[in-house]
Each structure stands twice: as C-alpha cells, then as structure tokens.
C-alpha cells in the first residue's frame, strides 16, 4: 500500500506542479533516521517522502484524522501512527522508537506539531535519544495551498547534515533547548541555501 500511495502521489503532484527539486541528498545518512522539518503545508510530508525515496517512512498524525473509516484505513496502511495531542500516552514515544529499532522504516516528525506553530517541541529529541537514530533536518519551499500547486512554482526540498545526539546528553530543559536550537539553526541555514531572502508566511494568516 505504501509503495502504491507513493506512486499515486507522483502521478498527481508531478503533472500538476512539475518535477520537484531535491537538494543535498548525499547528506542523508545510512540506516534509519528521524527526518525533522518545519510543517508548512498539508502536503509537505508527501514531498519529503518522495525526496528521500526509496526509504520508507512512518508518520505521526493527530487522532482526529482517523475518525473517517476510509481515511483511517488509508492512513494505517501508509504507516501513519495516531496520537492524542491532548492526552499523549507512553505509546507516542514507544511506537516510533520500536519502528526505528526493529524495522527498515525511518520516521518523519514535524517538531512544531502543527502547520500553524513555529514553536519546537520535545518529542523528536526524546525519540532520537531512546532509539539512537540521528535527526535529519530538512526544509520544504514551494506552493503552500493546493490551488497554488497549479501555479507551477517549483517545490524544493533541501536536506541538512544529520544531528547525532551525544549519549551523555540530559533531556532536561537546558539539554532540550540546546537540541531545539540545533534544529532551528539547521532549518534557517537550509532555507537560506535555497533562497537567501526566504520568509515563511502562513497561508491561513492571509485570509
């Protein structure tokens, strides 16, 4: 199902918006990793998964998306894990760690949590610490709404250097903030590599 959905994404996105540009794929590490990125549009997970192909990914999504039985079926077969953001339990961390350690799948996480938040949260760091998988920063620049995909503005994905957490790092407030700053610095650098004048504008704020 995952391979079929990836193929489906290609035959929908590429004719509409053209061939995307994937930069610095040589920075992608061997083995499993946690791809971390700012969440800028509802379809950027699709571009990240396509950019890092043939690697297969698991994703984390809010449980509300699973209310529709048909959508829930598709999400589960696309390696999407359900999370209750209001009352997250231990499985929010345990399941992704298990996937990274016991399968050939990597993980895509948006540390900000939502498309409308730029504040980084700690889940990705804790999963990286427990699984011993590196964090791989990446950014998406391009259309931000489905309508703007038809403008043919090129979608660009840029990969950064992996962030390997020191085994001795303590995930207290100080340690967490240090890793979050590493991620944010990486995002800023990657955006500038694509476009030195880039500034993200949330499309919902323009309505």
UniProtKB/TrEMBL annotation:
SUPFAM superfamilies listed in its UniProt record: Glycerol-3-phosphate (1)-acyltransferase
Listed name of the protein: 1-acyl-sn-glycerol-3-phosphate acyltransferase
Organism name: Apilactobacillus waqarii
Domain of life assignment: Bacteria
Keywords per UniProt: Acyltransferase, Transferase
Domain Phospholipid/glycerol acyltransferase: 33-143
Molecular-function GO term, any one: acyltransferase activity
PANTHER family: 1-ACYL-SN-GLYCEROL-3-PHOSPHATE ACYLTRANSFERASE
């Amino acid at each position: 199902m995952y391979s079929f959905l990836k193929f489906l994404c290609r035959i929908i996105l590429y004719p509409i918006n053209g061939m995307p540009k994937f930069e610095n794929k040589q920075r992608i590490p061997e083995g499993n990793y946690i791809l971390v990125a700012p969440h800028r549009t509802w379809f950027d997970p699709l571009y990240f998964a396509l950019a890092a192909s043939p690697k297969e990914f698991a994703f984390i999504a809010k449980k509300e998306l699973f209310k529709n039985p048909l959508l829930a079926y598709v999400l589960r077969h696309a390696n999407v894990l359900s999370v209750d953001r209001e009352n997250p339990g231990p499985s929010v961390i345990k399941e992704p760690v298990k996937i990274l350690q016991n399968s050939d799948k990597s993980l895509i996480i948006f540390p900000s949590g939502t498309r409308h938040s730029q504040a980084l949260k700690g889940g990705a760091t804790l999963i990286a610490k427990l699984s011993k998988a590196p964090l791989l920063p990446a950014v998406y620049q391009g259309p931000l709404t489905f309508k703007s995909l038809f403008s043919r503005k090129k979608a660009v994905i840029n990969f950064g250097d992996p962030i390997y957490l020191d085994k001795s790092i303590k995930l207290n407030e100080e340690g967490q903030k240090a890793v979050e700053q590493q991620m944010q610095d990486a995002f800023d650098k990657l955006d500038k590599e694509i476009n030195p004048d880039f500034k993200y504008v949330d499309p919902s704020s323009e309505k």
